[in-house]
Structure formats: C-alpha cells, structure tokens
Amino acid sequence: MTLEELAHIEPELLASIRADAMREERERLLTLNAMMAPGLEVIISRAIQDGTDPATIALSCLSIVKEQKAETPLVNGLPPLEEAFRSSQEWQRRARARGKLVTTH
Question: Which pLDDT tens digit goes with each residue over 38-76?
Fold first, then answer.
C-alpha cells in the first residue's frame, strides 16, 4: 500500500501517524539541545542532522565530558580543602588585624 492509498483509505490513521512522528521528533530535538555543552557541539549537531537518538550518543557525550573534566586545571589544580580553609582563616586574621573585617555575632 502506498502513502497515497493510505491517505485515501484511512486519512485519520495517516494523520495520527504523522502527529506521533512529529511529536517524537520534537522530543528528540529538545533532548539533544538540552544535552548541549562545551565540547559536545559536533557530536550533537551530527546527531541532529542524521536522526540519531539521544540515548545512542549519551555514553559518547559522557566520555567527552569526563575527558574535559580530567584535563581542566581548575578542577584538578585546586588545593586540598584543609589548605584552602587555612588560607581563608589567615586572610580573615590579617583583615581583622587591619580593621578591615567586621564580624557580627
């Protein structure tokens, strides 16, 4: 049966199939756009163009994000929490000594 024959014999069925397909495509595009993040532009744009399901590229996207996170010096280069806390305490002590820090209790 051709599309034209289905449209002639069952127009409501064809309209329902088209509405479902449009809804699913909108959801796919919304999901892919929600996944967009720095470094993922190429893979997501490719998925949008070729009709790939978001679930199909999810693991690839996660892998890319993990690689970026491992390479980011801001994340890996932070001092240990104790060191940062001591530095903050020292800064507060100096500010208090100069009369620049006001505390309210």
Answer: 899 999 999 999 999 999 999 999 999 988 887 766 545
Helices 54-71 & 11-34, crossing angle to 10 degrees? Answer: 0
Do residues 34 and 62 both lie within one domain?
Answer: yes
**Residue 1 pLDDT:** 86
Q: How far apart are CA 47 and CA 68, in angstroms?
A: 20
Question: How close are the terminal C-alpha atoms of the chain, in Å?
Answer: 81
Structural domain that includes position 82: 76-105
**56 and 98 assigned to the same domain:** no
